[in-house]
Amino acid sequence: MAPSPLGWEEIKISIALSAISALAVALRFTSRLVKRAKLGLEDWIALASLVSISAMLSQLILWVVLGNSAKHSSALSVGEITVFNKIFLANQFTYAVTSTLIKLTIILFYRRVFITPEFRFVANTLSIGCILWAIVALLGFALQCRPLSRQWDSTVSGTCDNQIAFIEGIQGINIFLDVSIFAVPWPMTWNLHGHWQYKVSLSGIFLLGGLVVGASTYRMIAITQIEPDDMTYTIYSSEIWTFVEPCIGLVCACAPMIRSLVPVAYAATKKSAFSSSPSSSAYCKSCSKNSHMNEIQRDGCGDMARLEVPPSSYIVADSVNSVDDTVHSRRSDQVTTTSIEMV
């Protein structure tokens, strides 16, 4: 049986989102290579997230083609509904893994940006919360029907819990984690010393996290609209947003690295103009010798706005091959040193 028009729409949307996610990860690794920066754990987790999203895409295509998703249950055979339920279960596991990997990618990036002990404690707490959420979700999906085969074969003797209610509960916690991850960097960002334009730029990147919160929230709304008697058809909106949410999350996780490619590309277009001018060439040489300028500033030879940070505030944050800008966050009676890695 051929997919329905809604089914084809699902496939097209999912392929487009997968392509955007793949491009974001490719640009992330390109940025690392261009900057000659050491690949961090968060980069490999981002790559693992892309692999997991690819698995979700394969499941969704099978869900539509073999499971006849987006069609009314009354029009399907028992065998087709069985296939639908099997893929539905597999998708729950994959979604939990994918969502957790993307959250950890973002949190690990925060840890490299803000190195204060207080913030790292918050980041570690969020990481533990995300891992615990994944464990609870995976165990819940595995144990919601006993035996598990009753999930797709109602003729098997056993019991099943209210699956939709459990998914709603898990999604509620997921939204809370997304909001927490979205909120934590804001106080640190605006306490940094530097140009307000830079703060706005950095905040704009973090603001993209609001899209993930919005997608998670809308997924919750879509889940509440699922009707158990006609799940194959009413699950359509939930399927779409189950795919939209992680794809947006991965793009947001890669956004800071993609941003760093902009001054590199801009500097490349201006290279000939700068090199033809003696004064510009001299300035570029002075830029390259200035240890108190960050990597992006040197790439643009002064075209980018500088962070006015006192030379005394520069420190070495870690031993990796990256250039860090260091700024001070002043609190009542102490100075907390915060390192911002220009990735």
Automatic annotation (TrEMBL):
<feature type="domain" description="Rhodopsin">
    <location>
        <begin position="27"/>
        <end position="262"/>
    </location>
</feature>
<feature type="transmembrane region" description="Helical">
    <location>
        <begin position="196"/>
        <end position="218"/>
    </location>
</feature>
<dbReference type="InterPro" id="IPR052337">
    <property type="entry name" value="SAT4-like"/>
</dbReference>
<dbReference type="Pfam" id="PF20684">
    <property type="entry name" value="Fung_rhodopsin"/>
</dbReference>
<protein>
    <recommendedName>
        <fullName>Rhodopsin domain-containing protein</fullName>
    </recommendedName>
</protein>
<feature type="transmembrane region" description="Helical">
    <location>
        <begin position="87"/>
        <end position="109"/>
    </location>
</feature>
<keyword id="KW-1133">Transmembrane helix</keyword>
<comment type="similarity">
    <text>Belongs to the SAT4 family.</text>
</comment>
<dbReference type="GO" id="GO:0016020">
    <property type="term" value="C:membrane"/>
</dbReference>
<keyword id="KW-0472">Membrane</keyword>
<keyword id="KW-0812">Transmembrane</keyword>
<feature type="transmembrane region" description="Helical">
    <location>
        <begin position="13"/>
        <end position="31"/>
    </location>
</feature>
<feature type="transmembrane region" description="Helical">
    <location>
        <begin position="43"/>
        <end position="67"/>
    </location>
</feature>
<feature type="transmembrane region" description="Helical">
    <location>
        <begin position="121"/>
        <end position="143"/>
    </location>
</feature>
<dbReference type="InterPro" id="IPR049326">
    <property type="entry name" value="Rhodopsin_dom_fungi"/>
</dbReference>
